[in-house]
Amino acid sequence: MVVKAFKHAWSAYERDAWGMDEYFPIRKEGHNFVPKGFGFTIIDSMDTMVLMGLEEEYQKARDWVVNELTFAQDEYLNVFETTIRVLGGILSSHFLTGSHDQILIDKATDLADRLMGSFGTKSGIPGASLNLITRQPYPPENRELTSTSEATTIQLEFKYLSHITNQTKYFDAVEKVNDMVEKLPKIEGLVPIFLDPETGGFSGVDIRLGSRGDSYYEYLLKQYLLTDGEEPNFRRMYDLSIEGMKKVLLRKTYPTGYLFFGEITTYNPKSISPQMDHLVCFLGGTLALGATGGKFHPSLLHKSPDSNMHKYNPLSRFDEEALLLGEHLTETCWATYTMHPTKLASEITVFNTDQNNNYDTYVKPADVHNLLRPETIESLFILYRITKNPIYRERGWEMFLAFETHCKVETGGYTSLKDSSVVPPILDDKMETFFLAETLKYFYLLFSSEDFFDIEKLVLNTEAHPLPKFNLK
């Protein structure tokens, strides 16, 4: 059914918006981020097609990239989004199709060479946006901050490109950013969500594990994994940040006792704001991956009848606590789905920490939308592969059916929701590219055979584009 869902989404985009960046399924039309577009939906979807065995769809998409896509456009684009979606998508497609398609590497190096201009700031911290013709990092009249996640979530893609092209310049550029951020003062390993490319320092005091902060922590672990443990400083920084999360941000709801990570805000920096983005739900799977390296370990939260059938090595106390915390956090994320009659989560959830109240969660009216996000299904997939506990597959199936029931557009495509808290939900008429790149990919992997897609050997970038581990030369 997941492949059928992908085809339902893809065929509508192909029919109504071919070559355009994103798709509005109710209006049956596309939209470009810049006038000519970059085919974000096409490139973001290609490796999903490869994994699903959709050869005809992949070949048409690949031919468009080869024959139609040009990066020589006098427009500013977000460096982070372009790297994780376009560069990551091309590199992953090249790898998954056998690493023989040189034209894809030519496209990747063309794009990366342009993106290298983003490091041309006073500090070397990349500008948030870049003109792909002038290679100017952000408009001169509009000096802008770069979010910490944007500056530190381009490393996998640039490092892997260096590995397959034997050109060290890509590795060196992002490693300089790593070195700078590593030396900056932090709070228990936690970082503010903005960097100033002019000074190279942090800007502001806001700390959160959701938007603008999330994938900094994700890529600490994944850089360590990508080079097969040969860069231990990233593991050290990751472990320190996990301890900091537990010490500074971790809270519990009343009356049920759900665990969640709050936020430090400019408005009240001495207390923890008890809310969490859906984006934070990636962390359940990341914690489990960091604890086990992708190897089997029985669930520490849910009993499984066949958990004794598999051999496993005991975890250290730190890793055991991390795995259990990852499962607890995913339990909380699952609760944000089941709290609504649609069984679909809202973008941001507020958690009750007052013992005098009899509710665990509520959602502000401005935050009831659902964007077809992948983070919870991502964690369900990783936790299922690690623990082999059927509860994670069962919950994934319930979630898939909820998307089918409330987000599927009969004429083609799937739509985000303006309000996921009511039935019928209020539709928003937008299919984000990450629905095809990530959400449906994680559903497909969750329900696939367990010997398909080895999470011990592959590292998924933050847009779910898989890259193989490699050793430094």
Automatic annotation (TrEMBL):
Which pathway does this chain act in? Protein modification; protein glycosylation
Q: Does the keyword Transmembrane apply?
A: no
Active-site residues from the entry: E81 (proton donor), D214, E347 (proton donor), E375
One of the protein's GO biological processes: ERAD pathway
Please name every pair of cysteines joined by a disulfide bond in this record: C281-C333
Name the Gene Ontology molecular function terms of this record. Answer: calcium ion binding; mannosyl-oligosaccharide 1,2-alpha-mannosidase activity
UniProt keyword annotations, A-Z: Calcium, Disulfide bond, Glycosidase, Hydrolase, Metal-binding
What EC number(s) does its UniProt record assign? 3.2.1.-
Give binding positions for Ca(2+). Answer: T462
Keyword Calcium carried by entry: yes
Q: Which reaction does it catalyse?
A: N(4)-(alpha-D-Man-(1->2)-alpha-D-Man-(1->2)-alpha-D-Man-(1->3)-[alpha-D-Man-(1->2)-alpha-D-Man-(1->3)-[alpha-D-Man-(1->2)-alpha-D-Man-(1->6)]-alpha-D-Man-(1->6)]-beta-D-Man-(1->4)-beta-D-GlcNAc-(1->4)-beta-D-GlcNAc)-L-asparaginyl-[protein] (N-glucan mannose isomer 9A1,2,3B1,2,3) + 4 H2O = N(4)-(alpha-D-Man-(1->3)-[alpha-D-Man-(1->3)-[alpha-D-Man-(1->6)]-alpha-D-Man-(1->6)]-beta-D-Man-(1->4)-beta-D-GlcNAc-(1->4)-beta-D-GlcNAc)-L-asparaginyl-[protein] (N-glucan mannose isomer 5A1,2) + 4 beta-D-mannose; N(4)-(alpha-D-Man-(1->2)-alpha-D-Man-(1->2)-alpha-D-Man-(1->3)-[alpha-D-Man-(1->3)-[alpha-D-Man-(1->2)-alpha-D-Man-(1->6)]-alpha-D-Man-(1->6)]-beta-D-Man-(1->4)-beta-D-GlcNAc-(1->4)-beta-D-GlcNAc)-L-asparaginyl-[protein] (N-glucan mannose isomer 8A1,2,3B1,3) + 3 H2O = N(4)-(alpha-D-Man-(1->3)-[alpha-D-Man-(1->3)-[alpha-D-Man-(1->6)]-alpha-D-Man-(1->6)]-beta-D-Man-(1->4)-beta-D-GlcNAc-(1->4)-beta-D-GlcNAc)-L-asparaginyl-[protein] (N-glucan mannose isomer 5A1,2) + 3 beta-D-mannose
Q: What InterPro entries does the record point to?
A: 6hp_glycosidase-like_sf, Glyco_hydro_47, Glycosyl_Hydrolase_47, Seven-hairpin_glycosidases
Q: Which domain of life is it from?
A: Eukaryota
One CC-aspect GO term = membrane
The Swiss-Prot or TrEMBL record lists the needed cofactor(s) as:
Ca(2+)
What is an example of a Pfam family matching this protein? Glyco_hydro_47
**Protein family according to the UniProt entry:** Belongs to the glycosyl hydrolase 47 family.
What is this protein called in UniProt? alpha-1,2-Mannosidase
Q: Which organism is it from?
A: Conidiobolus coronatus (strain ATCC 28846 / CBS 209.66 / NRRL 28638) (Delacroixia coronata)
